[in-house]
């Protein structure tokens, strides 16, 4: 045993020597991971110390980014350490457990001790990483609470109302001083600009201005025209052409003003024409230009005035022309607001000037919102009146539930902002205008273009008739329908990702995403704790919100599945119904589980609850459970499908609908028979269209024994041939069934396309046969019946 261990020790020592040499060349991963973990720990401690300082919003965002980077570094180091501890455990396993009562060799004992020390060190580092992650999350939560509290204080801060002298008095008193300080700032900036222009590099400012003018003017217009011409000449499909051109206009309309602003600012800085006090103003000009350009480019790409055939939105030219100016006003506000704030800061304007600037921005933003709403309402009203004048039925202005909900939210936010402005809550008014109205509108507009582009490109690129689709089908041998299905699936996946990103972007003003949004709803109370589950109003609201979102996502997925994906498959209506039903119940189940998880009830507790209720379900809901399971069997095995002609008992009809509890059958008198699914599984069911869709007609009759059977057979076959519904294959047949009671029996059979055509075709054929028999004098009457009266032998001879 000792010799075997010595051999293993020699091999292990050689392996460790090579590993050590490799680590010496590449560095010690354990030491690097521990050093990275130590640095992350220092960053978290520094963030904890900075948390006590009074940071502005930018500083708090930077601190959150540092915490996230520290957690990422700690997680990476933990992964490395976990891999190393796995290797150490493997080495310890190779040594095997020590033999009781046997002294180990000194080398093996030393190796075992070294490995134990390494494992202890790595395990301690991993535990430290877990504590570090917990500590950083606690600091992050505290920082989120601080940010939320600051935002709440800013929203709740009340300024003097514009309707009171408290607003106008300080403003009028501060105007002379503010004008003087602003004039001093302007003179200082002008002097610096003149000196820079006369300097050695003054020509750079002119170059920057010329580049900005060229990019903003001819280059932008040329790129837009080139994109449209390329879409006309090279982009296949009308849908991709429209959506691609809209995206191109959005990109060009945003990029060219941004490049122009960058070129202009670069020229001023390179020429030395920017004073230190003017630097924040120039710095604020570039991002403000990007935001303003994005707003006006987005509106232009969506509205496309005088280009109705290229427009994505289903609106007319009049509404597009009416809405376009409001986008320019909104873009102007987005450009002026940060620049004006930077000017006030650089000029060291009074508090009254800052208040007046915020109030003016709130009033102008409210005016833009009201103007856009009034424009939309007027145009919709005019469209309804025009439709009524033409004799059409006018739809409600906000008939769709989603449109009605959006209109209600926008109207409530507008009214709330107006009241807040009159009450002096300017921060609240600006937040309502920006976060509830304009920011969601901008995100939804951009998301609409991206969703349309994703769907058009995916379904057009991966289509059976497209060039890539034909190439894929020929090279790989995939069915055309499979290529269409892949395009629809790819479109659905990309659109789902875009929707999730869009929802996160919409919720950004509320706290940067789902988790922060729900965490900022506030804790109304501690709630009720049952076992390990705490049920509070906040948790209930969160669970309800999550459940509603889950149902909405499930409904959207089912709509996409039934309307987009399944029509591209080769499944029949019954199979599509089965897939749709199963997907529906799975979606509802996932939404319920998601809501319960948001409530704090995990899957293990749900399983425990179901096991406790299993007895009651087994007895009280036995019939429902039986029908439910039978419905699943019907949907899976499909012995009965939608559209089948079946007979159950004495009833016969067409299967109209199959659910998980019952099946609806339309009878011949147009009534509906609702049959529990368990009957279709446990009882005998005649399915006339399961394996063979053909229908058979059968005619039985007899003729006298002295009748020639040849003409009779010819008449029947001719009647079958004259009937259009009778199929040539299988061919009609006429059999002599036998001779009974002095008559010849005939059994005649033919086939039709379906069992539903058998009865009327049989009636028509029988009608023609009877007419020909009458004309030919062939008797097909019933045989004569003779009755004999037999007397009772016991009464014979009795008088």
Low-confidence segments, given as residue ranges, are 1-26, 394-399, 512-527
| Biggest sheet details | 5 strands, antiparallel
Mean of residue pLDDT values: 78
Helix content: over 70%
Distance between the amino and carboxyl termini: 126 Å
Count of distinct structural domains: 5
The largest sheet has its strands arranged as: 6-5-4-3-7
**Count of DSSP strands:** 10
The shape, in one word, is extended
InterPro entries: DUF3772 (IPR022249), LSM_dom_sf (IPR010920), MscS-like_channel (IPR052702), MscS_beta-dom_sf (IPR023408), MscS_channel_2nd (IPR006685), MscS_channel_C_sf (IPR011066), MscS_channel_TM-2 (IPR011014)
Transmembrane segments: 200-219, 246-268, 280-304, 355-377, 398-431, 437-465, 486-519, 539-561, 582-603, 609-635
Protein name: Mechanosensitive ion channel family protein
GO molecular function: mechanosensitive monoatomic ion channel activity
Tags for this entry?
Helix Hairpins; 799 residues; three-stranded antiparallel beta sheet; Methane Monooxygenase Hydroxylase, Chain G, domain 1; alpha+beta; extended; 22 helices
List the helices and strands and how they pair.
Blueprint: H1 2-26, H2 29-51, H3 57-95, H4 106-156, H5 165-198, H6 202-234, H7 238-270, H8 279-303, H9 317-347, H10 351-389, H11 401-423, H12 426-461, H13 467-476, H14 480-506, H15 514-519, E1 528-530, E2 533-535, H16 537-565, H17 573-599, H18 603-620, H19 622-637, E3 645-648, E4 651-658, E5 662-667, E6 672-676, H20 677-682, E7 686-687, E8 695-704, H21 709-722, E9 733-740, E10 743-752, H22 758-776
Antiparallel strand pairs: 1-2, 3-4, 3-7, 4-5, 5-6, 8-10, 9-10
